[in-house]
């Protein structure tokens, strides 16, 4: 016979089994929810110390789909409305009125209107010296969904400045913008692990249509090989800029897709003109001859780039493509002799002092240190000593310090399909990115005239003239235009590689189950 204690135990086990095995509404809903809760992990090549879109040089908030700007740039590099549905100007670009879209909310439910946009743009100006100079705003007035902006001087292409991710519109009244900005984009921030990753969740009330992913992770890793390993192991679904030597392996694997498109980025060699030697354009030209661009394209860039003849892609109507490339030790020697240098005992010397230079660069773009080593090797053969320094925050370093002579750098030179931004920020005295400390009166007048010119054909001609001067005086050496290369798992759908490099996690991004 079974005693009462055993009988109770058996009944309990049967009930437990029935409860566990029988389908119920909660278990089914969890299972179905998992099928529809799609997510991706995106691995980027630059780390971010902040998510504040007004100060972050890596533009993470916009790239991760948290923040949006009034104006955006399309894949064919044309500006088009985004949070602003339209705009108009009078006085040849002195006063602009932007109509803000209705029925948009921030990710905390707060309504977007012209006053919120005004507050956000004002914070941008207050937080960013570069954006203060670029926007050149004198006054803003908000009335419902109309924002009127008066500039300090006419800017015919002012809306293109509002493409910049540092002008992303956020709720300025939240307490921790650096860790959790509140924007209008398809994803809102769950957590931010500084320098590691951002965890994101779909904003259910996104204004511009359904967001396909439930969750996303925007992660950072500056080690290119580690990014490839993450893709191969399945811990990342999309990786930005894999090492170029890995492309053939990834392309041979049917589990992955590789996308490469021409970018509006240019790898540049900057010359610090606080260095007495580099104030002489013949010395700069001598160093430029050490850049064998075709060799860099083939041996370092794995043919995922084009040799640059200026800062802008040649297909732009404002690009000057007349520069001719001279290269090699023989040309360099002639330039140095013209500058008063002599070659003695294997060293380039002037007034008894050998020419020795420092070069700073960074490893987030893995090809840059390799190009630096090529420059160093060629310079050594000529008799110039170059010492390479790898730095973490190159933007801050070259702008804040004068203890460098050369900087191997990479910039998005025409992110709005226009030359004005790059020329103004990099070559005007006090420009937000004028790391070389360039102050050329002729060039300054050209750029200022460009900035006040309305007619597109005249603007293109002025930009060409300015670029020809930059190339002629070798104020900057443009090296190559790299492709944007992205590798991703074949289950990822609707990935688009935007030439501007601004928009990455979008509402359309999807994955198959």
In short:
By secondary structure, the chain is an alpha+beta fold. The chain has helices at residues 4-21, 25-36, 60-63, 114-127, 129-135, 158-161, 224-233, 247-251, 281-288, 293-300, 329-338, 367-382, 394-400, 420-427, 441-451, 456-472, and strands at 39-44, 71-73, 79-81, 84-90, 95-100, 137-143, 146-151, 187-193, 197-202, 215-220, 238-240, 256-262, 265-271, 305-307, 342-344, 347-350, 353-354, 356-361, 385-390, 406-412, 476-489, 492-493, 510-511. The chain has two domains: 37-236 and 490-509, Periplasmic binding protein-like II (D-Maltodextrin-Binding Protein, domain 2, 3-Layer(aba) Sandwich); 263-482, Dipeptide-binding Protein, domain 3.
Going by CATH, the architecture of the largest domain would be 3-Layer(aba) Sandwich
Give the termini separation. 54 Å
Work out the helicity level.
Answer: 25-40%
Q: Describe the biggest sheet?
A: 12 strands, mixed
CATH class of the largest domain: Alpha Beta
The number of domains: 2
| Low-confidence parts | 1-33
**Number of DSSP helical runs:** 16
Using the alpha-carbon principal axes, give the shape.
globular
Radius of gyration from the alpha-carbon trace, in angstroms: 27 Å
CATH topology of the largest domain, anyone? Answer: D-Maltodextrin-Binding Protein, domain 2
Oligomer: single chain
Q: Let me know the average pLDDT.
A: 90
> What's the total number of strands?
23
Q: Label the structural class.
A: alpha+beta
Classified in CATH, the superfamily of the largest domain is Periplasmic binding protein-like II
Relative strand content:
15-25%
């Amino acid at each position: 016979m079974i005693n009462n204690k055993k009988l109770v135990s058996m009944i309990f086990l049967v009930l437990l089994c029935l409860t566990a095995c029988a389908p119920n509404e909660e278990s089914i809903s969890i299972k179905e929810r998992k099928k529809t809760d799609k997510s991706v992990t995106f691995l980027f090549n630059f780390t971010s110390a902040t998510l504040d879109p007004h100060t972050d040089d890596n533009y993470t908030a916009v790239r991760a789909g948290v923040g949006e700007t009034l104006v955006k740039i399309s894949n064919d590099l044309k500006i088009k409305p985004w949070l602003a549905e339209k705009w108009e100007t009078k006085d040849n670009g002195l006063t602009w009125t932007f109509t803000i879209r209705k029925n948009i909310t921030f990710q905390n439910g707060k309504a977007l209107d012209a006053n919120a946009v005004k507050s956000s743009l004002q914070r941008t100006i207050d937080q960013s010296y570069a954006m203060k100079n670029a926007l050149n705003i004198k006054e803003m007035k908000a009335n419902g969904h109309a924002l009127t902006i008066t500039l300090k001087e006419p800017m015919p292409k002012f809306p293109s400045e509002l493409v910049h991710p540092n002008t992303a519109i956020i709720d300025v009244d939240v307490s921790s913008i650096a860790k959790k900005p509140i924007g209008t984009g398809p994803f809102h921030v769950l957590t931010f692990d500084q320098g590691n990753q951002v965890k994101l969740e779909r904003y259910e009330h996104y204004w511009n249509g359904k967001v396909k992913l439930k969750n996303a992770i925007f992660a950072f890793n500056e080690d290119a090989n580690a990014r490839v390993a993450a893709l191969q192991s399945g811990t990342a679904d999309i990786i930005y800029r894999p090492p170029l030597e890995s492309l053939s392996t990834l392309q041979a694997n049917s589990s992955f897709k590789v996308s490469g498109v021409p970018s509006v980025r240019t790898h540049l060699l900057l010359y610090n003109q606080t260095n007495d030697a580099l104030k002489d354009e013949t010395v700069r030209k001598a160093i430029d001859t050490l850049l064998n661009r075709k060799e860099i394209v083939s041996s370092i860039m794995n043919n995922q780039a084009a040799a640059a003849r200026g800062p802008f892609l040649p297909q732009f109507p404002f690009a000057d493509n007349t520069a001719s490339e001279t290269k090699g030790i023989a040309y360099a020697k002639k330039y140095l002799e013209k500058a008063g240098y002599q070659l003695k005992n294997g060293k380039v010397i002037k007034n008894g002092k050998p020419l020795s230079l420092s070069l700073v660069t960074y490893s987030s773009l893995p090809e840059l240190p390799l190009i630096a080593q090529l420059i160093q090797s060629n310079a050594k053969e000529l008799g110039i000593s170059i010492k390479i320094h790898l730095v973490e925050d190159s933007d801050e370093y070259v702008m804040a310090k004068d203890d460098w002579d050369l900087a191997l750098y990479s910039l998005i030179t025409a992110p709005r399909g226009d030359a004005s931004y790059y020329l103004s920020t990099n070559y005007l005295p006090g420009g937000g990115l004028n790391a070389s400390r360039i102050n050329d009166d002729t060039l300054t007048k050209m750029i200022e005239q460009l900035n006040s010119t309305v007619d597109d054909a005249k603007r293109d001609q002025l930009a060409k003239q300015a670029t020809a001067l930059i190339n002629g005086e070798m104020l900057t050496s443009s090296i190559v235009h790299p492709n944007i290369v992205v590798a991703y798992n074949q289950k990822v759908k609707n990935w688009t590689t935007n030439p501007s490099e601004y928009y990455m996690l979008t509402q359309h991004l999807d994955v198959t189950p």
